[in-house]
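Allow me, if you will, to draw on your knowledge of protein folds for a short while. Thank you for your consideration; the sequence and its C-alpha cells are set out here:
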Amino acid sequence: MEQHIKVPMCKEDAARLQAGDYVYLTGTIYTARDAAHKRMYEALERGENLPLEIGNNIIYYMGPSPAREGRPIGSAGPTTASRMDKYAPALLDLGLLGMIGKGRRSDAVKEAIVRNGAVYFAAVGGAGALLSRSIQSSEVIAYDDLGTEAVRKLEVKDFPVVVVIDAKGHDLYQTAIKEYCVEEL
C-alpha cells in the first residue's frame, strides 16, 4: 500500500502502517549516525537534555556528502541501522516514532518498536543522489564537530521509504524471505 505521511508523525500514523507499505514522508526529520547516537546516549546517562525533541520524530541514519552548488545537501543514502541498535531502544522509550536506515535490526530494537508503537523504515541503499532530491533544506543543529555525522534537521518532501518493521512487530525482512523461498524436494 502507498501512503503519504506528514512528519513529525503521530502514534495513529505509526499504528496504521504495515510492513511492506511504501511511504512518502513530508515535513521535518533529523539525521544522526553512530557518533551522534553515542553522544546523545551519554547525555541521557548524565541526565542532560538531548539536542532535539525526540517525541514523535524520525531519525534518518545518514551522513551526507557535500552539497553541490544550488542544492541543500549532497548524496543522502542510508547507513546500516544495526550500528545504532545499542542506542535505539532508549530513544524509542523517550518517544521516537521512526527510524530510517538499511538492514536488519536486533531483537531488542524490535521489542522497543512494538513496546512504543514505532516504525522502522528502509531507504534504498545506493540511491543517495536520488534520495537527496526529496530534501528541501538541511541545517546542522548539534555536534557540528562531527562533520558529516553531525545532527541535522532536514525538511523533506515526498521522501520515499518502505516500512520494514511495523508497530506490531511484523518484519519485512523475515516475511519476504518466506515468500520467496522455495523448498527443495
User: Anything to note?
Assistant: The chain has six helices and seven strands. Helices lie at 11-16, 34-45, 88-93, 107-116, 128-132, 172-180. The first helix runs from residue 11 to 16.
